[in-house]
Amino acid sequence: MPAVLPEGEPVPEDGSLPATALVSVGARGFGVYVHVPFCASRCGYCDFNTYTASELGGGASREGYADTVLAELALARRVLADQPPRRVETVFVGGGTPTLLPADDLARILDGIDRTWGLAPDAEVTTEANPESVTPESLKTLRAAGYTRISLGMQSAAAGVLAVLDRRHTAGRATAAAAEARDAGFDHVNLDLIYGTPGETEEDFAASLGEVIAAGVDHVSAYALIVEDGTRLAARMRRGELPYPSDDVAADRYLAAEAALSAAGFSWYEVSNWARTPAARCRHNLLYWTGGDWWGLGPGAHSHVGGVRWWNVKHPTTYAARLAAGTSPGHGRELLSAEDQRVEDVMLRLRLAGGLPLDTLDGAGRVGADRALEYGLLAEPDFRAGRAVLTLRGRLLADAVVRDLLP
Q: Pfam families per the record (predicted)?
């Protein structure tokens, strides 16, 4: 089941933000995240804030969801009325499975965002989708509505791996959906892979990489399987039905991904993400990683504006009830200190191909950076130029490098 939200301090009933947070809204970019919490079934590894029909209970439904999101958007407009963002540069609709909503509903939500704050002329608008949840017709509707990018959850090309993950699509459907998205006119298409699933062979992953490359997409995300407590996959491992993932295997898979994707013309720009061109990089995720502002719409969605982070109540029924009563759906929030923001900047920027300026580090962090350089985890030419940039070996040990830089 979905993880428990942190508590934080209470969010005011009207959702208002401190005046200090409103001084420079969007100075480092402004985006909108829309969470769609519905899934046809729950994958065995998933602990996201998503719900199948049987898990929803009464008081929430897909049919009225777009209107509920638009109600939160109206609240957001009131909160930022005195200092609205200059424009919305990125929109990302995630889930769950956003494309379980009718394409017309997703179009209405995007139109609502445009009417509220205005989409930039070159705005990146992404929706996630499961391969079986889109059709050529729905994709054309989304593209006509202004969606420019789609991210498809492929995970693997091997039927056995998909079965272990409890994925519903058949092997080959993801690449077929990618072709349909290109035919519909999407500017950018991403395929997501998961590696290190129990039972996955070296050949399975090589085949998955081969199919991704042959699909002609311009972006690939590849993540090691993480087994979260409370998931069906974790329970199977505790019972001994499946082995736990191997760190050594995960490292081998990552090296295989880097080799295959770089040979095919992709370049890494974040530890788990590769793009064919700079224009194909996910600008919305870069907004997160570089400290921009965004408003998160939907149950459990997180937002960040001017050093204030807050998160909505988790369940769709409670979320809808709060908005129907005219109050903020915010569950809790935290005001980030300058040091909090510096620490997050180090943690996130280090994962980017551009790295981070060494002068972001304090004295102890600089000692850690010297040590990481000595171990071959940071690139020497960049280091001499005043930046901490991960080497390939450093990318494999990125979390350890972060610990060195933030002792």
A: Radical_SAM
